[in-house]
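Friendly challenge for the regulars: who can give me the structure tokens for this chain first? No prize, just bragging rights.
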Amino acid sequence: MLPEAFCAKMQTLLGDEYPAFLAALDRPRALGLRINPLKTDAPPALPFRLEPVLWEPTGYTYDPSDRPGLHPYHAAGLYYLQEPSAMAPVVLLDPQPGERVLDLCAAPGGKSTQIAGRMKNRGLLICNEISPKRAAILSSNVERLGVANALVLNEHPAALAGRFPGFFDRILVDAPCSGEGMFRKHEAAGADWSGETVAMCAARQAEILDSAAVMLRPGGRLVYSTCTFSPEEDEGTVSAFLRRHPDYELTDADAPWFSPGRPEWVPEGSDALRKTCRLWPHRLFGEGHFAAVLTRTDGSSRETETEPAGKLPAEASALFRELGISVPDGTVLTWGERLFLAPEALPRLRGLRVLRPGLELAELRKGRAEPAHALALYLHEAASVLDLTPEQTLPYLRGQTVSADRAGWTLVRVDGLSLGWGKGVRGSLKNHYPKGLRRLD
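First reply, four minutes later:
Bragging rights claimed.
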């Protein structure tokens, strides 16, 4: 049930287009998935009915009856479930391998993992989320998709602005919003909607954007996006930001699939706002989104202190020899009893709330090391491998012991895609799939 005030507002804004907009919200919601290029260049034939998403080469829509979230390919990180219009902001951000990129409001991780795929695990990706609970979900998704070059932080944007002025090449601000594009997905979004919520969100978006503005280098690209239709949070927020930050300008998004922004809907709206993008559910297959591409034209770049490289413990070296792998380039970092491989030129972490300082390699235990689940999801090969078909994976994903003639640590895969670890003991494989991820069905 859509809020009456929302319907009245949209009817006033859209005029003759309103019936088509309303009819779109009555249809079943748009469902999509995005293939993870970190896992494969040529994914196996997926057993789903898929149609390409025009603006994202790795994106597809699927039929809800296929339920791809239950397939073992999902546990292996082959794809991320993401509705099609939510894929647009990262396409507009266009991150490149080797750059320094910030996803400032990153949970649950769809856009962070999309950025990581485009960066090909090269460069520095900082994924931040202010909510501790949502940051934990973000961290889990970064791990599942085999991302190696990401730090997951749980910080206030203002704290990061004080730490990283003029540091990033690209920044994504997918801002918290009133969620009008989520009404089909979450009934609570409609129940909680009000004009006061819209005003509160716009004020919070301004604060977040002001922090982001400090952290972008001159010539860098900032993409601001929301999943709402409200002009106050979309064109209005961008217009007010440009007045506060004369060192920023709107850049043409060059995205023919999307509709232009509507400057006439906000006070002091300039024609430049037509360079912003609106993704309407009645004009394309998606829930709805807004995005603006902003470029910083002036200011100064700044470097920051880097974390000193640690030394690979002897027990970890012995483990990697057993696994038949070599450690990729990066900064080895011991974090309590856990060993990580962080991106090269890792910024100093002291004083930051860090959930994941890179790729977790191993857990250190009294003179020995056990391989981390994240390492399994990152790897494609190991000295000992057990390949399963999708039909054979369910006992493993439930945490059961698997019959297999393997010795020592073994990488368990489904159709060549890594799922996790097992350890061969007397003709069976002791299950090391994390308890919190195990299937209960």
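The first strand starts at residue 32 and ends at 35. The chain has a mean pLDDT of 94. Your move, everyone else.
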